[in-house]
């Protein structure tokens, strides 16, 4: 069965990209065959009196590790034989995506700092580093710990630690791992980090997060510069530069519109960068962007690295935004992440029920794409079951038959599974543990 011969949904039909996407998948398959992925205020005095020097806890054997060991018996099987729902990543496609982003940015002066919140898997992070990434990003302190304790030397946490436990943990990690950098976006937090770093006997590396989408970050311009200058005066903090992430622009449909919006939204961040440089402060890091703007951020003055995340897997959300060369389908990267599902009911004409509902695929939109069946509309609205409405079908299906679907949004789907099957040539080659699953603290 061809791996990605046709994958479309009603969402894609509405923007007239079905035929374009199908042609893209057919071309992609041919290419791959030729070439063979602050909640509560701090009491600083009390905080300084408490220890922050404990080492990071090591991982212990668990039910999760037992499940991964059991799954290892599936190595060598066809993906069509796996018990479902089964999360799979096509290794050829994922590796192609990892190479592709470096190839596309070569010579631009912009590096790659992938966001590990997408895959939550140290093994994939190692592949990204081996390909030339300057490090990885993480969203949370618990995620950072998983990456650092599993061999990823350079980790930049893009979120801000504001509670006592999180700040303590951050200093524990920085004491043990020199490559750990964290973000801040307010003066109170800068002082709290300074106090904690002093108590730990370290100099902590910190970047200033600039507000781009009114979600996190300090206001650009004078407030951001003031925060950077305050930090630069702290004896136990080292100012490393700036972060600026525009999450809202990543899924703007149409490359030209996305580019214009991104560049406009980024103007205050560029102004801040120039102010920081003019003030004589260190600006060795000016990081941001994402999969949807990876080839747009190269036009931003001083920009150092792009925080691509979904590029490694791709998903339905990204495929419909269009790219620089294909306005209908974003085909810069290949869809590598899928879920194998089984038909469990076929009693009604024009309708199939699978064993993969929201607990396997989430409720994100657009809906999952059924590979090879452009006439299928997949709804994962039930917890345990997926429902397919058939407009047209390429074959007759019965209970027990398997289907393969491209996930709506890769990040939350990854967080539903303990591991993913590494697939090569339709067979299981490896088991990739998702060690940061559930690490949302």
CATH domain class name of the largest domain: Alpha Beta
Please estimate the helix content: 25-40%
Number of domains as seen in the coordinates: 2
**Computed CA radius of gyration, to the nearest angstrom:** 23 Å
Percent of residues in beta strands? 15-25%
Overall pLDDT metric: 89
Description:
The protein folds into 2 domains: 10-36 and 331-433, Lyase, Ornithine Decarboxylase, Chain A, domain 1; 58-63 and 108-313, Alanine racemase (TIM Barrel), CATH 3.20.20.10. Residues 1-19 and 28-60 have low confidence and may be disordered. Helix content is 33%, strand content 19%. Strands 1, 10, 11, 12, 13, 14, 15, 16 and 17 form a 9-stranded mixed sheet that branches. An 8-stranded parallel sheet has the order 2-9-8-7-6-5-4-3. The chain is globular. It has 15 helices and 17 strands. With 441 residues, the chain is α/β, with parallel strands linked by helices.
Write the layout of secondary structure elements.
Elements lengths: L9 H4 L4 H18 L8 H6 L13 H9 L14 E5 H15 L5 E2 L9 H9 L5 E3 L2 H9 L5 E6 L3 H13 L3 E5 L2 H14 L3 E6 L12 H11 L4 E8 L10 H11 L1 H12 L6 E4 L16 E2 L9 H4 L17 E9 L5 E4 L3 H4 L7 E2 L5 E4 L6 E5 L11 E5 L3 H5 L4 E6 L2 E7 L8
Parallel strand pairs: 1-16, 2-9, 3-4, 4-5, 5-6, 6-7, 7-8, 8-9
Antiparallel strand pairs: 1-10, 10-11, 10-15, 11-14, 12-15, 13-14, 16-17
């Amino acid at each position: 069965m061809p791996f990605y011969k046709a994958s479309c949904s009603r969402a894609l039909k509405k923007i007239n990209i079905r035929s374009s996407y199908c042609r893209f998948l057919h071309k992609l398959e041919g290419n791959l065959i030729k070439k063979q992925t602050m909640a509560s205020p701090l009491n600083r005095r009390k905080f300084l009196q408490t220890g922050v020097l404990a080492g990071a806890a090591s991982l212990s054997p668990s039910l999760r590790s037992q499940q991964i060991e059991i799954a290892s018996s599936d190595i060598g099987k066809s993906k069509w034989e796996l018990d479902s729902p089964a999360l799979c990543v096509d290794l050829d496609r994922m590796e192609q995506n990892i190479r592709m982003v470096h190839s596309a940015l070569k010579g631009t002066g912009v590096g790659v700092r992938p966001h590990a919140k997408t895959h939550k898997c140290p093994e994939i992070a190692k592949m990204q580093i081996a390909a030339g990434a300057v490090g990885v990003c993480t969203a949370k302190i618990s995620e950072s710990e998983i990456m650092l304790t599993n061999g990823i030397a350079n980790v930049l946490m893009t979120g801000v630690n504001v509670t006592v436990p999180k700040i303590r943990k951050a200093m524990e990690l920085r004491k043990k791992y020199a490559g750990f950098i964290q973000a801040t976006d307010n003066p109170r937090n800068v002082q709290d980090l300074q106090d904690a770093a002093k108590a730990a006997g370290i100099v902590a590396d910190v970047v200033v997060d600039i507000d781009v989408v009114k979600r996190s970050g300090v206001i650009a311009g004078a407030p951001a510069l003031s925060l950077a200058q305050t930090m630069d005066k702290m004896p136990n903090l080292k100012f490393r530069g700036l972060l600026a992430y525009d999450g809202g622009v990543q899924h703007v449909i149409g490359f030209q519109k996305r580019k214009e919006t991104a560049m406009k939204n980024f103007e205050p961040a560029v102004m801040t960068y120039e102010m920081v440089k003019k003030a004589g402060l260190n600006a060795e890091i000016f990081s941001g962007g994402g999969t949807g703007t990876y080839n747009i951020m190269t036009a931003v003055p001083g920009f150092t690295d792009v925080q691509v995340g979904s590029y490694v897997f791709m998903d339905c959300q990204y495929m419909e935004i269009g790219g620089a060369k294909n306005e209908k389908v974003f085909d810069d990267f290949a869809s590598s992440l899928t879920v194998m599902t089984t038909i469990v009911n076929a009693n009604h004409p024009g309708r199939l029920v699978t064993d993969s509902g929201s607990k396997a695929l989430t409720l994100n939109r657009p809906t999952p794409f059924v590979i090879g069946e452009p006439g299928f509309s997949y709804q994962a609205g039930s917890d345990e079951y997926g429902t397919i409405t058939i407009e047209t079908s390429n074959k007759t299906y019965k209970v027990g038959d398997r289907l393969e679907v491209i996930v709506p949004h890769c990040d939350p789907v990854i967080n539903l599974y303990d591991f993913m099957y590494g697939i090569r040539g339709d067979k299981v080659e490896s088991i990739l543990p998702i060690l940061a699953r559930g690490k949302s603290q």
